[in-house]
Amino acid sequence: METLKPPYLKKAGQRGNINIWIVDGTYVRTHIDEEFTNCGQHYNFKYIPKDEFWLDHEEKPDEQKFFIDHLLVEHRLMAKGVSYNDALEQADKIEITERKKSGDVRKFTKGKNLPDAEKVHVRLWKKLETPVSVWIIAGRLVRSVFDIDFTEGGHDYVYEFVPQNEVWIDNDLEEIERPYVLLHELHERNLMAKGWDYDRAHEDSSKIEYHCRHNPNELHIALGKEGWE
């Protein structure tokens, strides 16, 4: 049986009796819970102690304040018995307000102009032989301007703001983890292009991602089957 190690990297602060930790999100997703994203608290992720918030280690740590403010609301409400969905809705409102105060939305939209999705492109990772292009994108801007719940990656079959034939990979993901998220997104998109609904395609993609995280020697072949050569 695999022995799990503590995922803590460093303490980021404290709010009341809550200890805030930066954790190795790659390790958490590989060995504890594949669905862990940018941050979490006990009432949504039972493996997190009640008196802790976990923040994923970001390549560019510029969203911690947003995540902490979100978790404070979510944790407080769920501790009182509020459902996760209702707590998430309230926490999202607080986070959206904080993101607007930061100036992200104002700088991005320039008044009344609609946001241009191409402005979040950081660099082209690869243009596939199919019409699909894979882009590394600015995750913070996507969350501030388009969808606060965007994490790790996405594509045009799930997000209406992603241009046609594009797959997006969050630049906050560490380099070592990006290929596994890429596999998930390409597989999911290919299935949805065949007519699968999102839930079914996501579940199947999560299984393949999980398998390759634990069998990294199979990753290259798996990506090849999705058109990544």
By DSSP, the count of extended strands is: 8
Taken together, the total number of domains comes to 2
Percentage of residues assigned to helices: 40-55%
Tell me the radius of gyration.
Answer: 18 Å
| SSE sequence, one letter per element | EEHEEHHHEEHEEHHH
Main sheet properties: 4 strands, mixed
What structural class do helix, strand and pairing data support?
Answer: alpha/beta
Query: Overall pLDDT, averaged?
Result: 92
Distance between the termini: 35 Å
| Beta strand % | 15-25%
Low-pLDDT stretches are none
- Note the overall shape: globular
Number of helices: 8
Care to give the gist of this entry?
This protein has 229 residues and is an alpha/beta fold.
Description:
The protein is an alpha/beta fold and 229 residues long. It folds into 2 domains: 95 residues, no CATH class; 109 residues, no CATH class. It is built from 8 helices and 8 strands; from the N terminus they run E-E-H-E-E-H-H-H-E-E-H-E-E-H-H-H. The strands form 2 sheets. A 4-stranded mixed beta sheet has the order 1-2-4-3. Strand 1 and strand 2 form a beta hairpin. The longest helix has 19 residues. The radius of gyration is 18 Å and the shape is globular. The model has no long low-confidence stretch (mean pLDDT 92).
